[in-house]
Design goal:
This protein has one domain. The chain is 77% helix and 0% strand. It has eleven helices and no strands. The termini are close together.
Length: 247
């Protein structure tokens, strides 16, 4: 193991402890507000949002349109992959920022458009990062891994340790997901969308405030992509450092 990989192992230890520590005041406040908002939203609206999330994720898991044009790079060192991943993340942050600023100026109607658009941007970013680190998203198990990265980034604190453990032992877990869609059928999509929304609602609400919608939307989307990118990069670092084929 070279000096860079040793440093990354140390950074991963710090990150994993921080990821699974109890939520702070801001996170608790955000979840409290989100919970109250969810109580006010009619069941039919929740069902519609759940259907939207399920549809987008299904397209990502089973469709070809998310597969990146970039080739899978298995020749890059971890340090080289990290640098390319940061460049890729920066590009998608700019795309998400522009999308958030544009929809933030349009009130409720354009904000409704922002919800599925932002998920699509995030899924595209994850697919790109997979290829940067040398993992082929044509494999169904790699797409399931992406969904778990998404879950880790936007799940509740209670779920993070469980999902993180799946990622740590993906070399074994991936054997369960060669080609079938059992994961998609078993998934609790309503909980999935609520936890995702709970993690972003506080920021996205500011996007609807007249006068600051564009700025708030840009900031919200930028920080949301930043959080997803950090989780994805570290998830792939965990895999690379434990993958015998890269040793």
């Amino acid at each position: 193991m070279n000096a860079y990989e040793q440093r990354i192992r140390f950074e991963l230890d710090v990150w994993e402890r921080r990821l699974t520590e109890p939520p702070g005041w801001l996170e608790r406040t955000s979840k409290t507000i989100s919970a109250k908002i969810n109580e006010l939203i009619p069941a039919k609206v929740h069902q519609a949002i759940t259907a939207t999330v399920r549809s987008i994720v299904r397209t990502a898991l089973f469709g070809a349109e998310y597969t990146p044009r970039r080739k899978v790079n298995r020749d890059a060192t971890l340090e080289e992959a990290d640098q390319e991943a940061r460049n890729t993340l920066s590009l998608y942050q700019k795309i998400a920022t522009a999308e958030g600023a544009g929809t933030g100026t349009g009130g409720l109607i354009l904000n409704a458009v922002d919800f599925p658009a932002l998920i699509a941007i995030k899924m595209k970013c994850l697919f790109e990062l997979a290829h940067v680190y040398g993992y082929d998203t044509n494999s169904f198990s790699e797409r399931i891994f992406l969904l778990n990265v998404f879950r880790l980034a936007f799940s509740s604190n209670a779920q993070r340790e469980y999902v993180l453990d799946l990622i740590r032992r993906w070399d074994v877990e991936k054997e369960r997901w060669s080609s079938d869609s059992e994961y998609y059928r078993r998934m609790d999509w309503e909980t999935f969308q609520k936890e995702y929304r709970d993690s972003i609602d506080f920021r996205k609400m500011l996007q609807m405030v007249p006068g600051i919608g564009a700025v708030a939307g840009a900031w919200a989307n930028y920080t949301i992509l930043e959080e997803l990118g950090e989780v994805a990069i570290n998830a792939y670092r965990i895999r690379r450092l434990g993958d015998a084929s890269y040793e």
